[in-house]
Amino acid sequence: MQNNILDNHKSESMRLDKWLWAARFFKTRSLCKTAISNGKIHINNDRPKSSRKVNIGDEITIQQAHATKTIIVIKLSEHRGPAKQAELLYKETEQSILKAEKERQKQKDLKILNVPGNMKKPTKKTDRRALSNIKKHL
């Protein structure tokens, strides 16, 4: 049985759109190509084309919706496999994880403000604390 993940050889490389598809960042290669051509993907701080070769150790920045991830390529795969296998192809950087967590907390705090009835002057101690926490994160 052949292994779908390529060995860690420095000479190995593959197309960017195919790797993004195999790593399950996008559902189709067509969506990968669209994201690349719209400037949502960067490799080592350069704006690539779909045919750009990805090598092990490359740093890829991916902007999806309102989130931006920075990942390091660990392995290459020619085939799209299960999500557990796709997670083995890359590692998200610590800075990216911290930034995502901060953004999630900010969105959570903003949700508190958008609840009907909370648009009035804060009257309870908990409302004042929530508002204070939001101001700290902004």
Give the helices and strands, then pairings.
Blueprint: E1 14-15, H1 16-22, H2 29-37, E2 41-43, E3 53-54, E4 59-64, E5 67-73, H3 83-86, E6 90-92, H4 94-113, H5 125-137
Antiparallel strand pairs: 1-3, 2-4, 4-5, 5-6
3D shape:
elongated
Largest sheet, spatial ordering of strands:
2-4-5-6
CATH superfamily of the largest domain: RNA-binding S4 domain
| Arithmetic mean of pLDDT | 84
**Could you name the CATH class of the largest domain?**
Alpha Beta
- Determine the structural class based on helices, strands and strand pairing: alpha+beta
Low-confidence segments, ≥5 residues, pLDDT <50?
7-11
How many structural domains does the protein architecture include? 2
Measured as a percent range, the helix fraction is 25-40%
Tell me the span between the first and last alpha carbons.
53 Å
Please give the number of β-strands: 6
Task: Describe it.
- This protein has about 140 residues and is α+β, with helices and mostly antiparallel strands.
- It has five helices and six strands.
- It has two domains: about 1-90, RNA-binding S4 domain (Structural Genomics Hypothetical 15.5 Kd Protein In mrcA-pckA Intergenic Region, Chain A, Roll); about 95-138.
- The strands form two sheets. It has a four-stranded antiparallel sheet with strand order 2-4-5-6. A two-stranded antiparallel sheet has the order 1-3.
- A hairpin with a 2-residue loop joins β4 (about 60-65) and β5.
- α1 (about 15-20) crosses α2 (about 30-35) and α4 (about 95-115) packs antiparallel against α5 (about 125-135).
- The chain starts with 13 loop residues before the first strand and ends with a helix.
